[in-house]
Design brief:
By secondary structure, the protein is mostly helical. 36% of the residues are buried. It is elongated, with a radius of gyration of 17 Å. Helix 2 runs parallel beside helix 4 and helix 5 packs antiparallel against helix 6.
Length: 179
């Protein structure tokens, strides 16, 4: 599993490096009046909220989860989603969007008072499985029909990593259901 985690981290960083570099280089020439379509604005909002929720819930998992595999999954999600959030922030700032989206308080609130196996089950269901299923759909939609070229490219580059997270979440759910 550690090799897989290192491989995922490296592939995630490599997937976004060209997009971030192009955006950083292009940011100087971008005007603040460069407007995003409502759909692209919604993507940034939804992707940002999903990422913030994933990070916050995964940080809770580090102290509330009883299962080692759940904590390892959470640690990987913190690393990968923090990188994704940074990359999306670069793109958002290019368009004058500076306030980072907040985490979904209903999800975080539902997890805060849980501990041990009860937390593990809720985290796997609400964050790992449901959260990644929704994220895959969100990033697929943006990569296929987004209007902003850079956002569309960023979504397409992130999609394999998010899809892999979804697969990992499904496997984690199956493993924990069997035990």
């Amino acid at each position: 599993m550690p090799r897989l985690l290192i491989s995922l981290t490296l592939s995630f960083a490599a997937a976004f490096a060209p997009v971030v570099q192009a955006q950083t280089e292009g940011a100087a020439s971008a005007t603040p009046s460069a407007r995003l379509s409502p759909g692209d604005q919604q993507f940034l909002q939804d992707a940002g909220e999903a990422g913030a929720t994933e990070i916050a819930a995964s940080k809770l998992a580090l102290t509330h989860a009883s299962d080692r595999q759940v904590r390892e999954f959470a640690q990987r999600m913190i690393v990968d989603h923090t990188k994704l959030a940074r990359n999306l922030d670069v793109l958002a700032k290019r368009h004058g969007i500076t306030a980072p989206p907040a985490a979904d308080t209903s999800v975080i609130g539902s997890l805060q008072n849980l501990q041990g196996a009860e937390f593990d089950k809720a985290y796997i269901e609400k964050v790992a499985v449901d959260g990644h299923r929704k994220a895959v759909a969100l990033f697929e939609k943006e990569s296929e029909s987004g209007n902003d070229t850079a956002l569309k490219a960023a979504a397409a580059k992130a999609l394999p990593v998010i899809s892999h997270h979804d697969e990992m979440a499904q496997q984690l759910a199956k493993t924990k259901a069997a035990s």
